[in-house]
Task: structure prediction
Amino acid sequence: MHIFLPIANMSVPVALVLGLGGSVGFLSGLFGVGGGFLLTPMLMMAGVPPAVATASDTNQIVAASVSGTLAHSRNGNVDFKLGMIMLIGGLIGGTFGTDVVRHLRGLGNFDFVVKSAYVVMLLFVGVFMLQESLRALRHRKKAGAVEGVSHPSGIASRLPARVYFPVSGIECSVVALVGLGFLIGILAALMGVGGGFIMLPVMIYLLGIPTLKAVGTSIFTVVFTAINVTMAQATVNDTVDVVLAVVLLIGSSLGAQIGAKISRRLAGEQLRVAFSVIVLAVMVKMFYQLVTKPASLFILGGGH
Amino acid sequence: MRKWCISIIPSFVLLFAVINAACAEIGARPESVKVGLGFSGSIVTVTGTVPAGSDVCLRVISPPVRVPLNRQGKVAVFWMSVQKTIVEGVPKLYHVYTSSSVKDLPVSLRKQIIGYRDATVQAKVTEKKEGEEYVLPAGEAQPFVKSLVELYEKKGLYAINEGKIKIENGRFTADVAVPVGTPQGRIEVTSFFIKNGRVVAQKETSFDVQSVGLVRWLRQLSGTDGPVYGGLAVMIALFAGAAVGMAFSFIDRLFGKGRESGEHAHAH
Result:
């Protein structure tokens, strides 16, 4: 059975879109990321124009992250107080980032800049997470299964305006949280993603938030970042395909619930190892695309 | 008398051609193709009368569309867009149907069709560079136009269908494909009737491609009121996400109760 996508102006098998949404939603619930960095390339491989894939993907992230937030909040994993503070920075960063995008587009090869930034960032995040989680797994085997309370490290621990967050069980600088939110807001506007895959390691390793709380809280903030980007894409580029987003979100909302359930049964370190492997795999794929000759030297333009 | 005969022969030839042309009629059914949520391509049947002993060639063509097209190039070790252009004046749909082989068509008609020449004759390629726009000369524009045609061909929007017109009892029938991606608007169908290596008559008809229902409403809203469309998209996503979340919460409670009562029963 096929469905016609009004904005993409193409017909796609419903089962394919449901399957893509379901698998990415599963990862979203499992790791607390929006999944945009995975779903957009998959949609493009299915023939959806890049601009429509990016914008519609962000739209479905709204649903997946709402569904994931509800699931994580039931498990007590969402630190709303901490998340709201990060959101303040996120909204300012998102608005600033939109202007940065407009400026970069005027300068020239924006697509390549974004893809390169993705590769570098995914490499950094993936390697860092893999190292840390493997080290933690080895320590856990030696010292037993006790997960100690983490504290902010490095510059995050020296910043002023420290506030205690009972849900996460940490004391952290409001400045650090607003700063992180601001950075995520800029990246979300630049890359058209929720930003969870960058936010998560920063929350865990730099701010010392326990893994599951970081997962729940990051997915909560992704809801708002994705709403912001969806509105901007619909207003500026007319590229949000609601029909595509709805079919994707049916799959992804169900997948997110299942992912969140499974995440409860897994240790934080196992989650981090699996996540870092996925991040590195996506990085390798994107790098390969940048250095291999495309099948056709001429491509239809538009989008990121 | 001889002079009179000589002068009347061309008049008869002309009259014969006019009668032939009058005999050739053409129509398309349905007259309108509706693009709704279930649309995955359609067929329009074009029929008509054929002048005695003639072959038929149909040309199906959509209005031209404006398309951004980028050329990829290697910079250091990376492949990236090195030239950004806008291609205009090229129709997005161009199909040809014939009752015989293309090589049997008159040379002038064959020249138009081979390589989709008459589809690209109005093409204009504008390069966008450092905020400036300038039209590429024909030589530089040609690879862009050729690639666009190849892209359309891969999507089934451009095709030459030899021997796909049936002629029976003085009437012809062709099943004209309307693939996904056909632009909205009026699709022009021109029939050429060929006899003894010459086009003896030509007739035109057309059909509409129009979006309907939800597809039409969403396209209009997206094009005319982006913020409202974006708000709608967000509301749908929020509602769907929350609905699934609540549904799973309900299932959780249901299973939780089930487990509790099961454990309770076990204890007894």
